[in-house]
Write a structure and sequence with these properties.
CATH class of the largest domain: Alpha Beta
Family: Belongs to the LysR transcriptional regulatory family.
InterPro entries: LysR-type_TF_proteobact-type, LysR_HTH_N, LysR_subst-bd, WH-like_DNA-bd_sf, WH_DNA-bd_sf
CATH superfamily of the largest domain: Periplasmic binding protein-like II
CATH topology of the largest domain: D-Maltodextrin-Binding Protein, domain 2
Shape: rod-shaped
CATH architecture of the largest domain: 3-Layer(aba) Sandwich
Largest sheet: 5 strands, mixed
Strand content: 15-25%
Strand order of the largest sheet: 4-3-5-12-6
Helix content: 40-55%
Keywords: DNA-binding, Transcription, Transcription regulation
Distance between the termini: 82 Å
GO molecular function: DNA binding; DNA-binding transcription factor activity
Structural class: alpha/beta
Pfam families: HTH_1, LysR_substrate
Length: about 300
């Protein structure tokens, strides 16, 4: 099967060089191989492209037509190859990111605005979804999520850990009192988010004396709203409630209880992390998210 691209490339070089020998030199081929490519192209197209003798060559009308269009096409290929290769070293182009609604509104939107200001050649599209892991089908470059499924075929980069803590609103604590020990949680009103948190609560309270679940939901924002309304004690990540703690809308409880942190991770298609825009974004997020917790959860605790 003829190499159509090699034939066209050789023809354009011959037309630009003016002689077969000079074209052969530019292509790094022998004179015979260069002449053979031209003959093969003319035979395949069924027309003469170049009039030639031992000292001179000129383009036929068909040759001029092919040179004009093929020359522009090869130049466009060179340009796009240069642009694509530049993206391996320079952050440029459209960067499509997906994450959860709460994460985007609370923390990521300001960070991406900062990233965009630092990288003016990158256009950011930040999208929100209930689940942010299926980026192969959605066409996103990066998904930012919490504790992704372990069987994901995507490459995962841990950006930082997000501490978890027990907290409740002052209104609830004034009504029901502060739990003084883990065992007291079994008689308090507790809010649980999702099935996975059922296990977390049981591990905190102890298998022999499970938590009293007053309200449960699969919606983290709803659980936070219940807690702010004084409905009970909730386990939340510091990312979600840092502002509430600072403003006194929620108070941390039992700061000595060690809860496993939630991992904030970025998922991307294997190999795509080699592009400069993805690599620079991941490095930026990792650096700035790790700066996001200047005060430890224990330091935020309000004594009973």
């Amino acid at each position: 099967m003829p190499d159509r691209f090699a034939e066209i490339e050789s023809f354009v070089k011959i037309a630009e060089s003016g002689t077969l020998s000079e074209a052969a030199r530019r292509l790094g081929l022998s004179l015979a191989a260069t002449s053979r490519r031209l003959s093969q192209l003319e035979a395949r197209l069924g027309v003469m492209l170049i009039r030639r003798n031992s000292r001179h060559l000129s383009l036929t009308e068909e040759g001029s037509l092919l040179y004009d269009r093929a020359g522009r096409a090869l130049s466009a290929i060179d340009d796009v190859e240069t642009d694509v290769m530049r993206r391996a070293t320079e952050a440029t182009g459209l960067l499509r990111v997906v994450t959860t609604i709460g994460a985007a509104r609370m923390r990521l939107a300001p960070l991406f605005r900062h990233y965009a200001a630092l990288h003016p050649d990158v256009a950011i599209h930040l999208e929100t979804a209930a689940q942010a892991t299926n980026i192969v089908e959605t066409g996103h470059d990066i998904a930012i999520c919490f504790d992704p499924p372990p069987d994901s075929a995507l490459t995962m980069k841990r950006l930082t850990d997000n501490p978890r803590l027990l907290c409740a609103a002052p209104a609830y604590l004034n009504r029901r009192g502060h739990p003084g020990a883990v065992g007291d949680l079994s008689v308090h009103d507790n809010i649980v988010v999702g099935e996975a948190q059922q296990e977390l609560w049981r591990s905190v309270v102890g298998s022999g004396n499970g938590p009293r679940v007053t309200l449960s939901t699969n919606d983290g924002d709803m659980a936070r709203a219940w807690a702010l309304d004084g409905a009970g004690i909730v386990i939340k990540s510091l990312w979600e409630v840092a502002d509430d703690l600072d403003a006194g809308r929620l108070q941390q409880l039992l700061p000595d209880v060690a809860l496993p942190a939630a991992s904030i991770v970025a998922l991307y298609v294997p190999g795509q992390g080699e592009t400069a825009k993805v690599r620079s974004c991941l490095d930026f997020l990792s650096r700035h998210l790790k700066k996001g917790w200047p005060v430890s959860p224990a330091d935020r605790a309000t004594p009973a």
